[in-house]
Specification:
By secondary structure, this protein is mainly α. It contains 2 helices and 2 strands. A hairpin with a 4-residue loop joins strand 1 and strand 2.
Length: 109
């Protein structure tokens, strides 16, 4: 429900920008614009971008964009298979000695 609402609320400001072009607040040929038209278009585009970002996050969380976020598998050369070293082959100096255990203090009440 939030996804649909975010998409609708993202399209309404874009319709406002189209209306500003149609009404002449911003014109392309000859290039001219009023200060009101410029600021209003910036505000409407920012609001639209916020709602589009929210709808993107909602779609990603619902798994609707799984096709766009495929994880790449680690490339392993086929000629050199991975070989695990046995535990006995590790040198003794590589493993640190365990820390000595300190006696627990007695708490008197």
């Amino acid at each position: 429900m939030i996804l649909v609402l975010s998409l609708v609320l993202a399209l309404v400001p874009l319709a406002g920008v189209v209306w500003m072009f149609a009404s002449g607040m911003i014109s392309i040929a000859p290039p001219s614009a009023t200060v009101d038209g410029l600021f209003m278009s910036l505000i409407l585009l920012t609001v639209s971008a916020c709602f589009l970002l929210n709808s993107y996050w909602e779609a990603r969380d619902k798994g609707l964009l799984a096709f766009a976020h495929k994880k790449k598998a680690a490339l392993v050369p086929a000629s050199a298979p991975a070989v695990a070293k046995p535990a006995s082959a590790a040198p003794a100096a590589a493993t640190p000695a365990p820390a000595p255990k300190l006696p627990a203090e007695k708490v008197s009440s």
